Amino acid sequence: MSLWPWILAACVLAYATKLAGYFVPRSLLKNPRTMHIAGTMTIGLLASLTVVNAFASGQSLAFDARIGALVAAAVALWLRAPFLVVVIVGAAAAAGLRLLGWG
Question: What is the C-alpha separation between 68 and 45, in angstroms, rounded?
Answer without folding.
Answer: 21
